[in-house]
Design goal:
Layout: H1 2-12, H2 17-22, E1 27-30, H3 32-35, E2 50-53, H4 61-73, E3 77-83, H5 90-104, E4 108-112, H6 126-131, E5 140-145, H7 160-173, E6 179-187, H8 190-202, E7 209-214, H9 219-228, H10 235-242, H11 245-248, H12 255-267, E8 273-279, H13 284-294
Parallel strand pairs: 1-2, 1-8, 2-3, 3-4, 4-5, 5-6, 6-7, 7-8
Helix pairs in contact: 1-13, 4-5, 9-10
């Protein structure tokens, strides 16, 4: 009953025009095991929605490719993860690319290091994958961004290594045929995100940014994922919410966070965040309902 109430209430509220504009071209993420719970993606998402397919350690490539093929058949644009540290060698990388292209007509990929400490083989970062030439012919390549830094990359808590990597990727994008963008980890506080995005532009990194947003979920669930994924200072937004008894039992929604960014984008059209990428931590159906409630109506 709580879910039904959550889904019906936003639909009756007037839509925020700035948020609706900001949500155009949004994307969302699934894993093969979560995709299995969706009867038909066409009932949840607009045709052509970019759907990232997260490749978690231990996931069989056959399941990844089958999920991509299903998404393609149901009118979505599949974008599988290519995690460097899970790929044993160049032959494996070429096999993955060939299977995705041949069985699911995959043309887009998120190239990242991968969330494991020890590489499975010769690849240990996304730059090795990008420089391999394996993705020649892809129309779009996304790379990871970390608005709050990444302790796995910069052990000292600085932004040096992640900044150096983005500079390399910026230069790579200038000679690549594929369109490129930065897809970020999810955050909860808009102010620091705006400062980070502005700092990138000032540093000469003009790759468009697809900002990570945590979809609606129970507060306890979000805190668990945020800690596990290394979300930094903006975790305080959730911690503050946890101390408010009136909000403790209510599901978190990203409306305030997205609204802040949307209004900034409306006032500064040159702002380099161009899209929203939703992590459906509370379930893809819940996130899809929130997106539908706040996005532009179909004409």
């Amino acid at each position: 009953m709580a879910l039904l109430g959550f889904r019906s209430s936003p639909a009756r509220a007037p839509k925020d025009a700035a948020v609706a504009d900001f949500l155009q071209g949004h994307s969302i993420e699934v894993m093969p095991r979560t995709a299995e719970k969706v009867e038909d993606f066409r009932s949840l998402l607009p045709a052509g929605t970019r759907v990232y397919i997260a490749h978690i350690e231990g996931t069989d490539i056959a399941d990844m490719v089958a999920t991509a093929a299903r998404l393609r058949a149901e009118g979505m644009e599949p974008m599988p993860h290519f995690p460097a540290r899970l790929i044993a060698d160049r032959a494996t990388l070429d096999d993955w690319v060939a299977r995705y292209r041949g069985e699911a007509d995959v043309r887009q990929g998120l190239i990242l290091a991968g969330g494991v400490s020890e590489p499975a083989g010769e690849f240990h970062d996304s730059m090795q994958l990008l420089g391999s030439g394996a993705f020649d012919g892809f129309t779009r390549l996304h790379v990871a961004g970390h608005p709050e830094g990444n302790r796995d990359i910069d052990l000292d808590g600085s932004m040096k290594n992640v900044s150096d990597a983005l500079e390399w990727k910026q230069k790579f994008s200038e000679r690549a045929d594929a369109e490129m963008a930065i897809a970020t980890q999810f955050c909860f506080e808009a102010g620091p995100v705006i400062e980070w995005a502005d700092a990138l532009r000032e540093a000469g990194i003009d790759l468009p940014i697809h900002i990570g947003v945590a979809g609606p979920a129970k507060l306890q669930t979000l805190i668990k994922f945020a800690i596990a994924c290394g979300v930094g200072p903006s975790l305080r937004v959730l911690q503050k919410r946890a101390t408010d008894v009136t909000k403790l039992l209510l599901p978190y929604e990203p409306t305030e966070f997205v609204g802040h960014l949307a209004r900034h984008k409306a006032a500064h059209p040159e702002f380099n965040i161009e899209a929203v990428h939703v992590f459906p931590l509370g379930g893809i159906k819940t996130s899809a309902a929130w997106l539908s409630a706040h996005s532009k109506d179909k004409e």
